[in-house]
Amino acid sequence: DTGASSTAISFELYKALRRFNQIKVIGLFDVRTAAGPIRSPLVQIDNMTLGPYRLSNIGVFVMPEAAMQQADGLLGMNVLKQFHFQLDQTNAELLLTP
């Protein structure tokens, strides 16, 4: 969802990541979603890999399952702005270049 300003993950994915990593909780914030406003924790992910690219210290909102229907997460502009990106709708691909 390239309209999202912040990256988000589902609570289920957060629980799985938390088993293997120390994840710092930054705080609770009011967030507007397509499903309406919610209060969500913002956490810091130390390292994130997207294909060949490695990102550090990414702020990620943890969303309840109802707000993340049929997805484990979404990339927001806080991640995408670090790249030139293009959506290839024919092949259902997100193309990233530094």
Q: How would you describe what is shown here?
A:
With 98 residues, the chain is mostly beta strands. The chain has one domain: Acid Proteases (Cathepsin D, subunit A, domain 1), CATH 2.40.70. The protein is built from 2 helices and 7 strands. The chain has helices at residues 11-20, 77-80; strands at 7-10, 24-33, 36-50, 53-63, 73-74, 84-88, 93-97. The chain starts with 6 loop residues before the first strand and ends with a strand. The mean pLDDT is 90.
Task: Look at the helices and sheets and give the structural class.
Answer: mainly beta
Output the number of helix runs.
2
Just name the CATH architecture. Answer: Beta Barrel
Strand-residue proportion: over 45%
Q: Give the helix proportion (percent range).
A: 10-25%
The N- and C-terminal alpha carbons lie at a distance of: 19 Å
Could you give the order of strands across the largest sheet?
A: 2-3-4-1-5
State the fourth-level CATH superfamily: Acid Proteases
CATH-defined fold name: Cathepsin D, subunit A, domain 1
Overall body shape: globular
Count of discrete structural domains: 1
Summarize the main sheet: 5 strands, mixed
Order of helices and strands: EHEEEEHEE
Which spans of ≥5 residues are poorly predicted at pLDDT below 50? none
Average of the residue pLDDT scores: 90
Radius of gyration, CA atoms, in whole angstroms? 14 Å
Indicate the CATH class: Mainly Beta
Structure summary, number of beta strands: 7
